[in-house]
Every structure is written in C-alpha cells, then in structure tokens.
UniProtKB/TrEMBL annotation:
Enzymatic reactions: AMP + diphosphate = 5-phospho-alpha-D-ribose 1-diphosphate + adenine
Its EC number(s): 2.4.2.7
Gene source species: Burhinus bistriatus
Protein name, UniProt field: Adenine phosphoribosyltransferase
Cellular location(s): Cytoplasm
PANTHER family the record matches: ADENINE PHOSPHORIBOSYLTRANSFERASE
Gene: Aprt
Any one Pfam family match given in the protein's UniProt record, by short name: Pribosyltran
Length: 157
C-alpha cells in the first residue's frame, strides 16, 4: 500500500496538493528548467509530469518503451529484476545543454531511472534532478544515481 499512489489520484484535493509540493520544491531548487521528462506510458510518472510541467510553464518530454515513439530515436537497454527492457526518446526531444528534471511515481531498484538519465546524457541534456513521489529505500535504487541529484517526497524502508 505504501507504494501505491492510486488514492492520491482519486482525490483531486490530494493530487493538487502533491503537485503543489513538487512545484514548490522545483521552484526553490532550480531557477531554470527547460523540460520535465517522464518515463514509460505504463508508469504513473506520466500522470505527474504533464501537470507539473504545465504549472511551471515548460514542456513535457516522453520517454517510452522501445518502438512506441515516431521518428528517429535514441534507445538504451537496461536490466530489470526479471529480464531486460529498452527505453527510448525522440532524437530531437531536447537540445544539448537544456536542463531537464526526470519524474516518476516510484523509485525501486533504480534501473529505469538510470536508463532515462543515460538517454538524456546521449542527447547532451543536463539532468538537474531525478524526482519521485515514493522511494523504497530498502532496494537502494538511489545509490545507482550517484552523479545525479535525487529527490523523493516520501521514503519507506
């Protein structure tokens, strides 16, 4: 239950408060952000990223499973607990030097978030921060994000 954000999504006041908290954090931490990036369409990070980007007056960039985006793409494969997967981003999604915050609902083992960071690195974007609502600390995913600032609203052991 601690890793399920469904109750937040069902309650408009709670969801609004969540976006308020994330917006306040980003405005205080970073004077300039060019894009919010969200991972995978099956991830609830897509439900958080667009309203957050809209509040900040910036664009939202899609990171998807391989084969889901049109046009030229960059892709990266990464290990899952149960196999391998690939993520991709459109090659022209961000320009070199643009500042990006990657958002997701949950950080577990960190594989997907690391893959998203790698995609941004390949496009020569600057990842300002990886931002999640919930971090499962026991799985030590944030340790994989050594060189990237990381922020979680809630932590569970």
């Amino acid at each position: 239950l601690c890793s399920d954000i469904s109750p937040l999504l069902k309650d408009p006041a709670a969801f609004g408060t969540l976006i308020d908290l994330l917006e306040d954090h980003l405005r205080a931490a970073f004077p300039q952000i060019d894009f919010i990036a969200g991972e995978r369409l099956d991830s609830r990070g897509f439900l958080i990223g667009p309203p957050l980007a809209q509040r900040l007056g910036i664009g939202f960039v899609l990171i998807r499973k391989k084969g889901k985006l049109p046009g030229p793409t960059e892709s990266v494969s990464y290990a899952l607990e149960y196999g391998k997967a690939e993520l991709e981003i459109q090659s022209d999604a961000v320009e070199p030097g643009q500042k990006v915050v990657i958002v997701d609902d949950l950080l577990a083992t960190g594989g997907t978030m690391c893959a998203a960071c790698e995609l941004m690195k390949r496009l020569k974007a600057e990842v300002l921060e990886c931002l999640v609502i919930i971090e499962l600390k026991l799985l030590k995913g944030s340790e994989k994000l050594k060189s990237v600032p990381f922020y979680s609203l809630l932590q569970y052991d």
